[in-house]
Design goal:
110 residues; three-stranded antiparallel β-sheet; 1 helix; four-stranded mixed β-sheet
């Protein structure tokens, strides 16, 4: 009767919520420029809200000699070059966002 169909409906809803396509990381700043020696905190949105409870794993996928990144997403310029920093969800496999970081030489004063 009624109960069985409403139960099936609830299962459908909960599986929909868990669909990976509905989970996503995005950023308002996919590309930033930073001076060597300076630090900038990278920001991200999880499903369009600022959700820090997801557990983000920060890594540098290219240009490791140009920048460093902390566990909190603070990127620091080291020397001139371009790096790709990735913020990946700890909970959802394959859910990540990439940042292009242009590191500039520190302005030298002779």
């Amino acid at each position: 009767g009624k109960n069985a169909s409403s139960g099936a409906y609830q299962i459908a809803i909960s599986s929909l919520i868990l669909t990976p396509e509905l989970t996503g990381l995005t950023t308002d700043e996919p590309m930033i420029t930073i001076q060597a020696g300076n630090t900038h905190q990278l920001t991200y949105l999880f499903n369009n809200i600022q959700d820090d409870a997801q557990g983000i794993i920060w890594s540098i996928t290219s240009g490791k000699n140009c920048v460093t990144v902390s566990d909190e997403g603070f990127v620091t310029g080291i020397k001139k070059g371009t790096a790709i920093v990735r913020a990946a969800s700890n909970r959802y496999e394959g859910v990540y966002v990439d940042y292009t970081i242009n590191s500039q030489d520190k302005i030298k004063r002779n």
